[in-house]
Design goal:
The protein is α+β, with helices and mostly antiparallel strands. It has a 4-stranded antiparallel sheet, covered by helices on one side. A hairpin with a 2-residue loop joins strand 1 and strand 2.
C-alpha cells in the first residue's frame, strides 16, 4: 500500500492544551459526521470540558482538540 503522513502536535499555553492531528489520507466520507471514532473523540473531549473541530478534504483530515489543563 501507499505510505501516508500523520503529524501530531501538542501545545500547552495559558492553562489550555491544544492537540492537532493531521494526515494526508483520503479524508472523511462526505456527509459522515457521526462515525464511531468521531463520536469517541467528541465524548472524550466533552469529558475534559474542551472543544473539537474536524476538517476533511480529499487531501487529508485535520482534527484539533482544545481543553483546559487540570488544576
Amino acid at each position: 500500500g501507499e505510505r501516508g503522513r500523520v503529524d501530531v502536535r501538542l501545545r500547552h499555553r495559558d492553562g489550555t492544551c491544544r492537540l492537532v492531528v493531521e494526515d494526508d489520507g483520503a479524508g472523511v466520507v462526505a456527509g459522515r459526521t457521526n462515525g464511531v471514532g468521531q463520536g469517541l473523540v467528541r465524548a472524550f473531549v466533552a469529558e475534559l470540558g474542551g472543544d473539537v473541530s474536524i476538517a476533511s478534504s480529499d487531501r487529508g483530515t485535520r482534527v484539533e482538540v482544545t481543553f483546559p489543563t487540570p488544576a
